[in-house]
Amino acid sequence: MSLLEKKVVVFGYGSQGHAHALNLKDCGFDVSVALREGSVSWDRAEKDGFKVLNLKEGAELADVAMLLVPDENQPELYNRYLKDGLKTGAFLGFAHGFNIHYGQITPREDLNVFMVAPKSPGHKVREKFLEKEGVPALISVYQDPSNVTLQLAKDWAKGVCLNLGVLKTTFKEETETDLFGEQAVLCGGLVELMKAGYETLLKAGYDERLAYFECVHEMKLIVDLVYSKGFAAMRESISNTAEYGDYVTGKKIITKESRENMKETLENIQNGRFAKDFILEGQAGYPILKTMRNRCKEEKIEIIGNQLRDMMSKNR
Ligand code: NDP
Ligand code: MG
Fold first, then answer.
1. Which pTM does this prediction carry?
2. CATH number assigned to the domain with residue range 3-169, chosen from the 4 options 3.40.1190.10, 1.10.3720.10, 3.40.50.720, 1.20.1290.10
């Protein structure tokens, strides 16, 4: 009873969807892609070699159905197509615990429910697979009438993420740490830190290109060192001047207040307030997401960044 003997259907062909589907296909699994009628991704999935089904057909074919459409759209997809469409005893997979943990999807009792959450953006999941390196992943089992769901999740993680580092967790722990990480550190915190540094230099009259190189571009070079060898090795690579500045200044930037705000961020995730706000945002047609996307595209920091990337690519 391995994944090799099962018909796998990946729902959605976006960031995670294309990566899971392609990686598993390259490993020799029987993978189809299910998309909504008229989907803009239909042609791309077909060109990538997949049989593409509509959502109803996908639900009926699947021994393993992996939900890789946006979190806010998963409950509707489950209720309309999967709840009645999936075979008895099928496997239902997630790449994030949001809808199970916050009670937005209550799976049928006969279904085997698992999670394989790559700790990586989808495009990197594919890129690192092609480089034969892989990405870390969290796996979990929520319902297991078959008694083989954990093994299936492990097979999935091995196929998609190459077993680089697979940790077993719960839907609750994955959901809460994932939301916290992206809000406080990886996306929200990081972007504001870079922007605040850039704006401080600009306000003091410095060249905006220098400010961008210093506070945005170089971030990756430093993070790459931390990624591959840790903080101490990163600090071995920077100058003594930079290292001294790091020790005496870092805590003045991430202050006690910042840490209290992090704690509050985590509490809003734990008590479900963030999830409720985000679900309402989706139901209202994404007013905040749309406004912020447009506003951020027009910011000066983006324009400078694009100019510098153009300049660097011409000199390559
Ligand atoms: P995407 O936004 O990239 O998914 C887009 C895909 O979903 C498209 O194929 C789109 O169809 C389809 N889709 C959108 N709405 C619907 C709908 N109402 N019905 C059917 N299909 C729909 O999603 P992500 O890859 O970002 O996220 C998928 C899951 O993976 C989520 O649970 C997320 O939390 C998790 N995850 C995501 C990460 C990431 O890197 N993005 C990282 C780790 C986990 P169409 O092609 O027609 O537009
Ligand atoms: Mg994440």
1. 0.94
2. 3.40.50.720
